[in-house]
Predict the structure.
Amino acid sequence: MKMKQSEIKQKRLMEKAQELFWKYGYNGISIDQIANEAGISKMTVYKHCSSKEDLFLKVLIAFSDPIFDNIIHKMEEIDHTLERIEFFYSYTMSISKELPSILTKDVMERPYVFEKLTIYKRQRSLFIWNFILDDGIKKGEIRHLDIDFVSNLLLNLPMVFINSDYLREDYRNKLINNFFDFIKYGLLGGIEVPLNYTERG
């Protein structure tokens, strides 16, 4: 189906805004520059967003949407619950490294953007954790548990990495082993695990 002119302009705006935010950071670019680079008027920009912060947030969400969609798609190709959990963690951590470091600082310095983006990511992540755990219970791969509670627990576990001690090389292996021990025995409750997980201990 042929795109409407307004849709074409919005697509150009989002693509050019991402390119410029990624290259120069939030403070290094203005709405005027974004409009000029996208070949649209400043008035058109404000038809699609209420402010520069709002545009920044929309760009970050547009960047994140296909990432979460791809995670859900890949989950269908992974058999065991533990493998899905490991994939979800490793994939999201690898993707986060693709964001320019300046953008992380830009997000942290803007409470509105930080709050809205956190809510968005939390909702999408909790949906995936709920799916993983619910499907794992139905297949008998993990024990019955409070899905909402454990989903929130798994979502917040990466906060451990903020502790500087765990960032040191000599703590890294200990953290990984302890984490998978928790997954194996805390979630599974004695249910048989794939061979590659029993070999980790």
The chain has eleven helices and no strands. Residues 111-138 form the longest helix (28 residues). The two ends are 54 Å apart (CA to CA).
